[in-house]
Design goal:
The chain has 56 residues and is mostly helical. The protein is 55% helix and 0% strand. It has one domain. α1 crosses α2.
């Protein structure tokens, strides 16, 4: 989904290349020498920590 709007379409940037889509993770993973799953997991863990901080 353009991951930041929540539309549920993971490969559709809706004409705006600045939105986060699966391709974003593919490119970032390749640049870091990791799998897409690893990149997504790392982002997920980071965001979870950030959201937990906001709750406190």
């Amino acid at each position: 989904m353009c991951m930041n709007c929540g539309c549920g379409m993971p490969d559709n940037d809706m004409g705006n290349p600045k939105l986060i889509i699966n391709k974003t993770f593919e490119e970032a993973a390749k640049a870091a020498g990791q799998s897409v799953e690893e990149a997504k997991k790392n982002v997920y863990e980071y965001l979870k920590k950030e959201m937990d901080k906001k709750k406190k």
